[in-house]
Specification:
Elements lengths: L7 H10 L3 H13 L3 H11 L2 H8 L1 H4 L6 H6 L3 H8 L7 H32 L9 H18 L3 H16 L2 H18 L12
């Protein structure tokens, strides 16, 4: 954010109220590119749609959490989900809710503090971030490869990649990303369903 010319305190606010790592990285690029609000909302929804699945799988654990329930839902990131979903069932719902709240609060606090330190350092230190933009793309490529190995049916990934390239070539830049996502979702809906491997916890 500092490299894109935004004030350091905006990173703090984003970390507190947005709290979505990939979403925050993407948001900076969308802001800098002058993307419309509705395009940004749709991109964020698609990027963070996995949190819906996380939330649905945690409904039973969160149902007796009382007043902290909504914060637990808000703070359910990849890492927090990995920690909370591995907890054994506790007969004392109040105790378990308190523990889940503290884990979520610590994860959120670490994220906000790290973002704040990075933003202040980026504002004060002469550091060029040129070339570091590959990191987020590399992250998503690694995640995609892991999914391809797990599912062992690369068809949807190959089709999505081809559609993305075609949309970039044939459509204006403002709509190419949205069109590629819409087409990939449409194709994934009509492809045969992939059975979940035996012994899988997903």
């Amino acid at each position: 954010m500092a490299d894109a010319g935004y004030p350091w305190w905006l990173a703090l606010i984003m970390g507190i109220i947005m709290y979505a790592g990939a979403g925050q990285y993407i948001a900076v690029g969308l802001f800098a590119a002058g993307t419309s609000l509705w395009e940004a909302v749709l991109v964020q929804l698609v990027v963070n749609a996995r949190h819906i699945a996380y939330g649905l799988s945690m409904m039973n654990r969160f149902k007796d959490a009382g007043p902290v329930k909504f914060y637990l839902i808000f703070g359910l990131t990849d890492e927090t989900f990995a920690l909370l979903s591995s907890l054994p069932e506790n007969e004392n719902p109040t105790q378990q809710a308190r523990f889940m709240f503290l884990v979520t609060l610590l994860d959120h606090g670490y994220w906000v503090l790290g973002g704040l330190i990075g933003a202040i350092a980026g504002s004060l230190l002469p550091f060029s971030t040129e070339g570091i933009g590959y990191a987020l793309t590399a992250l998503f490529i690694v995640l995609m490869i892991e999914q391809m190995y797990r599912i062992r049916k690369p068809g949807i990934f190959i089709i999505s990649a081809i559609l993305a390239v075609l949309c970039v070539i044939l459509l204006p830049a403002q709509v190419s990303l949205l069109a590629a996502m819409a087409l990939a979702l449409a194709f994934s809906a009509i492809l045969p369903k992939v059975p979940i491997p035996k012994g899988s916890d997903t």
